[in-house]
Amino acid sequence: MNDRNPVLGLVHEYNSKGHLLHLEDFPGAFTRGETLDQALGKIPAELARYHRWSGEDLHPHAVFNYRISRSKQSELAIEDADSDILFDSEKLPLSAKEYGELKALVLKSARDFLSLFSSIPDKDRQIKESRKTFYGELPATASAMYRHTKNVNHYYFGEIGIPLSQNEDIFLGRKEGFLELESRAGYLLNTVCKGSDGELWSLRKVLRRFIWHDAIHAKAMYRSASQVFPESKIENPFCFNF
What we know:
- The protein is of the alpha+beta class.
- Helices cover 40% and strands 15% of the residues.
- The chain folds into two domains: 7-83, 2-Layer Sandwich (TTHA1013/TTHA0281-like); 89-228, dinb family like domain (Four Helix Bundle (Hemerythrin (Met), subunit A), Up-down Bundle).
- Helix 3 (96-118) runs antiparallel to helix 5.
């Protein structure tokens, strides 16, 4: 690659079963692979998908140099998209403008997940093989996938001390979390805190994790529902391309 090409920062988590790469400058963008080379090879497609989804412009022939800014061997189930890493950049304070832009993406992600879920004709039909994962039984119906993803609102906000009183709707629950957050003095300081199981969290990390987690389960929902309901118009707001 030409040295004048922009450098794409990557955060790398891995174990004996796989590799997870986070695209540091595009919160929530990620690739996975059994090998590091496989994960690296998926970056161009993920960059293009993320830009289509977010509405940002990406030159069709953009080329990046890759730089792994941090690499961590993990005891977590990386192959099942478990993760606990806190980026160095996620320890920095937020400006009001930056927070507003990230919040808008997180809320867009919730709306898009709800749009995808709503387009599935039979939400209780099994669309995916069930199996055990690190967090329990893998959701096998659209309804179960939605409940799992929606319930993460409680978990992520709770890890930075923000309670939710209602969460019946993934978008409204997330919106309530932001309202409670914004009522707290100094939230833009992005204080790093220790969560319920000792994991380190910050507001920046929560914002990134919402987008990341939504995309993981939206991808599984969209791919499975498109195969099970080939005659239906399944919405694709996350811009997946299989």
